[in-house]
Design goal:
By secondary structure, the protein is mainly beta. The radius of gyration is 13 Å and the shape is globular. The termini are far apart. The strands form two sheets. Strands 2, 4, 5, 6, 9, 10 and 11 form a seven-stranded mixed beta sheet that branches. Strands 1-3-8-7 form a four-stranded antiparallel beta sheet, with no helix packed on it. The protein has no helices and eleven strands.
Length: 117
């Protein structure tokens, strides 16, 4: 079992940057695929960036080249560096963890990111 707590959200102007953190406890993130999802008002939750247990990454097309997912195993924390933010990035961002073929998966409580134009 793993508990996830996000932080780092806030209000930023278009073109600005934010770094989200997802602190995990209860288990090491080394054995979990980690991901950042977001959900804007009236829209479905979508995958923004994923990081596999082997260190591979994948990104939504809309954030490629602007967002970077990374992890610090020693701190048991996953990060999402977000650059060149636009108002379309406004959403609640959620941290997610899962183990291949094993249930359950886990979600954080979310952190709000608001980008003003």
């Amino acid at each position: 079992q793993v508990q996830l707590v996000e932080s780092g959200g806030g209000l930023v102007q278009a073109g600005g940057s934010l770094r989200l953190s997802c602190a995990a406890s209860g288990s090491t993130i080394r054995t979990y695929n980690m991901g950042w999802y977001r959900q804007a008002p009236g829209k479905q939750r979508e995958l923004v960036a994923g990081l596999t247990i082997f260190g591979g990454t994948n990104y939504a097309d809309s954030v490629k080249g602007r967002f970077t997912i990374s992890r610090d195993i020693a701190k048991n924390t996953v990060y999402l560096q977000m650059n060149s933010l636009t108002p379309d990035d406004t959403a609640v961002y959620y941290c997610h963890a899962d183990r291949p073929g094993i249930l359950p998966d886990y979600w954080g409580q979310g952190t709000q990111v608001t980008v003003s134009s």
